[in-house]
Structure formats: C-alpha cells, structure tokens
Specification:
27% helix; 22 strands; 13 helices; Rossmann fold; alpha/beta; Archaeosine Trna-guanine Transglycosylase, Chain: A, domain 4; Transcription Regulator spoIIAA; six-stranded mixed β-sheet
C-alpha cells in the first residue's frame, strides 16, 4: 500500500537520512518542476492518482463475514468541496515575521501559539495556512509554523528547529514519531488517536485509527493547505498494507473559525466501510467512521473505561448517562457479567447501536436488567430520583458545555446542576465518575462545580482518582489550552 514517494531510510545502513537544508530546498524546487508537468498534485498520492494505488477489497474473512460493509470509494481530489487554502511552494527561506518587544517568551519556551497582537506587522497578502518563520524583536529565530493572519490565533508552531524544512519528509517523520508512542498501548487495542495536533507537532491535525482505517480532521488553514501531502504521508509513514482507506471529516465547526468550509465526510484515499469493528480491553465495538460522533468513537475515554472495568466486580448496577453507543456499560459488563445496566441518551440511533454492541459481546440487550432509555438526561434523572432508583456506579459523560471562555460561567452552572441530579440516583457508598470535555472550563473549575453539587445534595465524598492526558491524547508541558478532557472519580457517602 506504499505510495510512490522516496523512502526516508538508508537501506544500506538502516539509518534516517537527514539532508542539509540546501539539499532539501533543491529537492523541493525539483518537486515544483515535476508537479508542473503533472496533471494532478502529488501524483501517486491521493484520490485519482492515476493508478498509483490499487483499489482495495475486503478479503479478510472477519470483515467480509459481517455482510454489512458498504465501502466508500475515494473521489477525485479536485472534486472535494473545500476552501482554497493551498499554499504555493516556495524555496527557503520562508517569509519572516517579527514579534513585538517582550512578546517572545512563551514561544521560546515551547508554547505552540502566538496571537495576532504579538506581531509587529502581519502580512495580509499571504494565503491562510502559509508557512512562515517567526523571530524575536531582536532578530533571534524562534520557530517555523502556519500563519493565518485573519485569525486572532495567528501562528501555530510546527518546529523550533531552523534546519527543518516543512515538506513531505517532515510529515512522515512526525507521523512515525507519533506512531512509536502509540506502540506502548496494549496489544489488543485496535483503535486509538494516532495524531493529536500540537502534542504531536502537527497543529490543527487530528487522525484517529480504527483497525486498518484512518479518520482525519483538518481543523486549521495550515493543516488544510497540506491536506494532500498529509494524506500521502500517512500511507507512507504507516507502511505497506497497514492502511486500507482514509476518511476526512470536515463536519466540524472549528473549521469555520479558520475561514474553512464546513462540509461532510469524504473518502480521501482507498476504501472506507460504513462500519468497522474495533477491540479495546477485551470488548468489541462497532464504529461508524463516516457518520458517528467525532470520528466515530470516544477514544479519549479509554482509560476511564478501563477503570470502570476494574471496579465493576465490586458493584451490582451501573447508570450510563449520555451513553452514546454503550461504551462505559460494556466495559462494566466485561468486568462483571451480572451487572445491571441503564443507558440514557437523547439519540435513538446511538442507543440502537448500543444494543448491537451488547449483542456483539454476547450480552442479550432485551434482558430486563438492561435498559436503553431515549431521553434528555436531566429530566430523566429528576424522574428516576423521585421514583427511588439508585445505582452503585453512575457515569456522567456529557457533551461540551463550553467550547470557549465566554461560555464558562453558564457551563459551570450546568455541571453543578447535572452532577447534583446524578447524586440523587447514587446509592450511599456508591461511585461517581463525572467528566467534562469543555475546553473553556479548566480542571480546578470543574472540580469546584462538582464540589458545589455535593454541597447542594449534602453528600460527603472522597476524590479517589482524577484523569487528564493519556498515552494517545498527550499534551505539551505548559500548554493547558488543549487539556479539554477532565474526569473525577469519587466515592460518595
């Protein structure tokens, strides 16, 4: 499945080749000349690559046996409806921008963002997503990255190495580095986040892996400008046969803030099925990569599901709020097959998928001890508390209440109210696992809202675990802005 790009390894010595800057600039210039003679950009790469990759069929017996796979084929890349953010290639050096005096400290310490007000001047004629160099006021070179002068968050750093050219080799090496970190995951985990934006040195890019398929999100103008290069680099970096197809999910509102088109899912390379079976800690799940929430599954909750699995033998009932496709309940059942479970979600299709996941794991969803309730969570909790329903373990995993700081106060009130209602259904001595994925609320503020809820309900509790970054959702030291996911596990009297 390898694409037609030069290898980054010296096969004779088994070492990585690191050409000098002048060599790499000459290679890029040659690439420009080659591209002008080709009818397609990056020929041999993305969709419609002139036969440089073979269409893939689902020959594996396990996948073919399901009988529900309907593969989507990649369309011609020029037919994808998206913003025209492509940056023309240019030889080194990149455009040079200077910061105001005293505004260089955070960037020099490794923070990946610079806001527009920190620059002496921002050129308005550069296409969104252009690669630029940034220097301190005194001329010291600091970083190279993507510029979007129309955005208040104007610069996102790609590298602090002045000799590192932003070309295909750069992306291949970044992806290989990210893959090496994920190799530390348990061997039976077949779905994980492969690329986590800034933490993996690729701001604006999210790539999730589901078995032999990838789902990519291009959040920023810089990532969008390099879309075809990134798609090709993914197949090269992961090696022949590792990837059968790559989907692109442009249905994310974050793109609008970058001036990008918010569209629908497309298949960027190879074939992508409607449904993929993944494995995690002995549990099997069905994922819809083109239509499911986020990229199809909440991969960022794996460590919390693992904790639920470990605790399940000590409880007899589990309430799964905002259940989606039943992830937490299935983790609990893996640890305690006799568990009574209740899944509550406002989406009927999500709960239907949860039922299918139960059956996939040999659990009969129609047993009286299992319930799937289509309802808004807060009204259901009020009724359940009034009816005297109590659970040993309650999982609260709502959608984001605050995407930005402007929504913080309202979100904190919502978290307090939601957790107060959840506490009314928690049995004395029970466990509460409560989560927040709001980027506009930090960990201390979220814990404060939960503490307020405990006070309202006059429940005493002990915090026994808290969760933040994980192995496939890493973060940079000092970069709190990307720590959107927080979770607390409490033992409640």
């Amino acid at each position: 499945m390898a694409m037609g790009f030069p290898c980054c390894q010296d096969s004779r010595a088994g070492r990585t080749l690191t050409p000098t800057l002048s060599q790499r600039a000459r290679e890029q210039e040659r690439g420009q000349r080659d591209d002008r003679s080709s009818p397609l950009p990056h020929s041999g790469g993305g969709a419609g690559g002139g036969g440089r990759f073979r269409p893939l069929s689902f020959a594996c017996g396990r996948r073919a046996s399901r009988g529900t796979v309907k593969p989507h084929r990649c369309v011609h890349p020029h037919r994808h409806q998206r913003v025209q953010a492509t940056v023309p290639r240019s030889s080194f050096p990149y455009p040079l921008l200077r910061l105001r005096q005293g505004r260089d400290y955070s960037l020099s310490q490794g923070h990946p963002w610079v806001f527009s007000g920190a620059f002496l001047d921002l050129p308005r004629d550069l296409p969104a997503g252009s690669v630029v160099d940034v220097t301190a006021h005194d001329g010291r070179w600091l970083a190279r990255g993507h510029l979007n002068a129309a955005n208040s968050l104007a610069f996102r750093a790609l590298t602090h190495d002045r000799d590192e050219l932003i070309d295909e080799r750069f992306y291949v090496q970044r992806i290989q580095r990210a893959r090496a970190l994920r190799a530390l995951l348990p061997a039976d985990v077949t779905a994980y986040r492969l690329i986590h934006a800034e933490a993996d040195g690729l701001p604006g890019l999210i790539v999730d892996r589901y078995d032999h398929w990838l789902v990519a999100q291009f959040h920023t103008a810089g990532a969008e400008a390099q879309r075809e290069v990134i798609i090709n680099a993914l197949s090269v970096a992961l090696g022949p046969g590792a990837v059968e197809g790559i989907a692109a999910r442009d249905d994310i509102r974050a793109r609008a803030r970058e001036g990008l088109v918010v569209g629908g899912p497309t298949v960027a390379w190879g074939l992508v099925p409607d449904e993929i079976e993944i494995h995690e800690l002995g549990v099997r799940y069905l994922v819809a990569p083109l239509t499911g929430q986020k990229t199809g599954f909440f991969l960022d909750q794996r460590d919390k599901r693992a904790r639920v699995l470990a605790l399940a033998p000590h409880v007899s009932s589990l309430l799964n709020l905002f259940a989606y496709t039943g992830g937490f309940a299935l983790a609990g059942l893996a640890g305690n097959p006799t568990l009574r479970t209740v899944n509550v979600d406002s989406s009927a299709p999500a709960l239907e998928q949860a039922r299918r996941n139960y059956m996939l794991n040999g659990v009969e969803p129609e047993e009286p001890r299992h319930r799937f309730i289509v309802s808004e969570v807060n009204p259901w909790l009020q009724r359940a508390a009034e009816d005297g329903e109590r659970f040993d373990l309650v999982v609260v995993d709502p959608p984001a209440f605050a995407k930005n700081l402007n929504q913080r106060d309202r979100a904190l009130r919502a978290y307090e109210q939601l957790n107060a209602l959840a506490l009314r259904t928690l049995a004395p001595g029970g466990l509460l696992l409560t989560c927040s994925c709001s980027g506009g609320v930090n960990a201390e503020e979220f814990e404060g809202a939960v503490r307020q809820a405990l006070g309202r309900e006059r429940r005493a509790a002990r915090l026994i675990a808290s969760f933040g970054p994980s192995l496939d959702h890493p973060t940079l030291p000092g970069f709190g802005e990307d720590r959107y996911l927080k979770a607390l596990l409490l033992s409640v009297d």
